[in-house]
C-alpha cells in the first residue's frame, strides 16, 4: 500500500472522528397487552380498545364546551409561556449546533501609539521619539475538529432538551383541556343544583301556604307553620352559596381563556345541559400510550439528553484540535493599506490536551452517569404511574356510573314519597314533620344525583387526560 493513500485514509478518519459515550436506546415501556378489566358489576358505558378520538371533548356534543376549549387553547397565558420556553430551547440548540461549522469573522482597527525608546522596537523607526499610526484589517477563521464527537453529543443533548420543552408545552395543553372541561362540567352541575334547589323552594313555600291554611281552619298548629317557615329559610340559605360557586367557576373559565373577570357571564350564565358520556367510547390500545402521554415522552427525552451528556464528559478527556487562520493587511500609512507589501497571514492548528485536572473531569463523568441512572429510574416511575392512573380512573368511572344510577332510583322513590306524604298530611293521616323529613331527603338525593352525574363526566375527562389524548388536535408549531 502506497504512503499517499494511507495518509489520505488517516486524514479522513481524523476528520470524520468517532463519537464517544453510549448511544441512546429507546427504553421499553413494558405496556400490557390489554387494559385491565373492571372487577364486579359493570356499568352501562364501557371503553373500547379502538383508536383514541383526538378531539374527545366533542363526544359530549356541547358546542359551547368545544368553543371554550378552542378559546383556551388559543389564548391561555400558561400555554403561551410554555411555547416561549420551547422557543428558548430551540434557540439554544441553534447556538450549540453552530460549533459544528467553521467560524469566520472580519476584524479591522486603527490606533495611534508611541513606543518607549528603551523598550521594544518602535515600528515607526523613530526610536520612540514620535507617535505613529497603525492600520490593520484581517479575515479570521477557526474550526474545531470534532474528533471525539463532543460537539455532536452536545447537539444530540440539545435536540433532546428541545423535545423536553416541546412535551412540557404539550403537557400544559393537556392539563388545560382537562381543567377547562372539568370546570365547565362543574358549572353545569352547580346550575342544575341551583334549579333543583329553587324547585324545592317552591315546594317548601307551597307547604308553608298549606300549613297556614290548615292553621286558619283549626286543623294545624303553630308548630307546623314554624316548621314550614324553617324549611323555607333553610332552602333559601343554600342559594347564595350556590350562586357564588357558579360565579367562581365562570371566573375560573375566564382566567383559563385569558379574559377579565365576569367576561364570560353573558355566554355561560344561562344554564345548559350537563355533558354526559356516550355508551361506548374508544380509549386506544396500551402500546400507544408512550406515544401520547407528554410526561412519558418528556421522561424519555430527559433520559436521551442525560445519555448524550455522558459522551460530552468522556470527550473532555481527549485532546481538542482547533484549526485557525487569518489573512489581511497592516500598514503605518493609510495610503499603503491594501498594497501587496502590506499583506500578512497566519494559520496553524492549536492542540489542547488535559494533563492534570485534579479529578474534575472524572467527577464530571461520574455526575453525568449518575444523572443518566436517575433519568432511567424516573422514566420507569412515570410509566408505572401512568398505568396506575389509568387503572384507577377506569375503576372510578365505572363506580361513578353505578352510584349515579342508584341515586337516580333514590330520587324517583323520594318524589313518590313526597307526593304521598303531602296527600296524607292533607288527609290528616300524618303530621307535618313527615312531610318535612321526606322533602329534605328528596333535596339531598337530587343534589347527590347531580353531583354523581357530574362525577361520571369528570371521571371520563380524567381518563382522557390519563390516556394523553387531546393535545394532538392543535398545531402549535
TrEMBL record:
Membrane-related topology note: Lipid-anchor
Statement: the UniProt record of this protein carries the keyword Signal: no
Compartment(s) where it occurs, according to its Swiss-Prot or TrEMBL record: Cell outer membrane
Pfam family, one: OEP
InterPro entries from the UniProt entry: MdtP/NodT-like, OMP_efflux
Ranges for region Disordered: 104-124
UniProt main location, coarse: membrane
GO CC annotation, single: cell outer membrane
Keywords: Cell outer membrane, Lipoprotein, Membrane, Palmitate, Transmembrane, Transmembrane beta strand
Molecular functions (GO terms): efflux transmembrane transporter activity
Family that this chain belongs to: Belongs to the outer membrane factor (OMF) (TC 1.B.17) family.
Protein name: Efflux transporter outer membrane subunit
Organism: Pseudomonas parafulva
Amino acid at each position: 500500500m502506497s504512503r499517499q493513500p494511507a495518509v489520505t485514509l488517516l486524514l479522513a478518519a481524523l476528520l470524520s472522528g468517532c463519537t464517544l459515550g453510549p448511544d441512546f436506546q429507546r427504553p421499553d415501556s413494558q405496556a400490557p397487552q390489554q387494559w385491565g378489566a373492571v372487577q364486579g358489576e359493570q356499568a352501562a358505558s364501557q371503553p373500547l380498545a379502538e383508536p383514541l378520538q383526538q378531539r374527545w371533548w366533542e363526544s359530549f356534543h356541547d358546542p359551547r364546551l368545544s368553543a371554550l376549549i378552542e378559546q383556551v387553547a388559543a389564548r391561555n397565558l400558561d400555554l403561551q409561556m410554555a411555547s416561549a420556553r420551547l422557543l428558548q430551547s430551540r434557540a439554544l440548540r441553534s447556538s450549540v449546533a453552530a460549533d459544528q461549522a467553521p467560524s469566520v469573522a472580519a476584524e479591522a482597527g486603527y490606533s495611534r501609539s508611541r513606543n518607549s525608546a528603551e523598550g521594544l522596537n518602535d515600528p515607526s523607526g523613530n526610536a520612540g521619539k514620535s507617535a505613529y499610526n497603525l492600520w490593520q484589517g484581517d479575515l479570521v477563521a477557526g474550526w474545531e475538529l470534532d474528533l471525539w464527537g463532543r460537539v455532536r453529543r452536545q447537539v444530540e443533548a440539545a435536540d433532546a432538551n428541545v423535545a423536553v420543552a416541546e412535551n412540557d408545552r404539550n403537557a400544559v395543553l393537556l392539563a388545560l383541556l382537562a381543567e377547562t372541561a372539568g370546570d365547565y362540567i362543574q358549572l353545569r352541575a352547580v346550575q342544575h343544583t341551583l334549579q333543583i334547589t329553587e324547585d324545592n323552594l317552591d315546594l317548601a313555600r307551597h307547604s308553608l301556604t298549606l300549613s297556614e291554611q290548615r292553621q286558619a281552619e283549626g286543623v294545624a298548629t303553630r308548630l307546623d307553620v314554624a316548621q314550614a317557615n324553617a324549611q323555607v329559610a333553610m332552602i333559601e340559605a343554600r342559594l347564595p352559596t350556590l350562586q357564588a360557586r357558579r360565579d367562581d367557576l365562570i371566573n375560573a373559565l375566564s382566567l383559563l381563556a385569558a379574559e377579565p373577570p365576569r367576561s364570560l357571564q353573558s355566554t355561560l350564565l344561562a344554564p345548559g345541559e350537563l355533558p354526559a358520556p356516550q355508551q361506548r367510547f374508544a380509549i386506544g390500545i396500551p402500546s400507544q400510550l408512550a406515544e401520547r402521554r407528554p410526561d412519558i415522552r418528556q421522561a424519555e427525552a430527559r433520559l436521551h439528553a442525560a445519555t448524550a451528556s455522558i459522551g460530552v464528559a468522556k470527550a473532555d478527556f481527549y485532546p481538542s484540535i482547533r484549526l485557525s487562520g487569518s489573512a489581511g493587511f497592516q500598514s503605518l500609512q493609510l495610503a499603503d493599506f491594501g498594497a501587496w507589501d502590506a499583506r500578512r497571514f497566519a494559520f496553524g492548528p492549536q492542540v489542547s490536551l488535559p494533563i492534570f485536572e485534579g479529578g474534575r473531569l472524572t467527577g464530571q463523568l461520574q455526575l453525568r452517569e449518575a444523572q443518566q441512572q436517575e433519568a432511567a429510574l424516573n422514566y420507569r416511575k412515570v410509566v408505572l404511574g401512568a398505568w396506575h392512573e389509568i387503572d384507577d380512573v377506569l375503576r372510578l368511572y365505572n363506580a361513578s356510573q353505578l352510584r349515579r344510577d342508584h341515586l337516580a332510583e333514590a330520587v324517583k322513590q323520594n318524589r313518590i314519597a313526597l307526593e304521598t306524604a303531602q296527600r296524607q298530611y292533607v288527609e290528616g293521616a300524618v303530621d307535618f314533620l313527615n312531610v318535612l323529613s321526606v322533602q329534605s331527603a328528596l333535596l339531598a338525593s337530587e343534589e347527590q344525583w347531580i353531583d354523581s352525574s357530574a362525577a361520571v363526566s369528570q371521571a371520563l375527562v380524567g381518563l382522557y387526560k390519563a390516556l394523553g389524548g387531546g393535545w394532538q388536535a392543535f398545531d402549535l408549531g
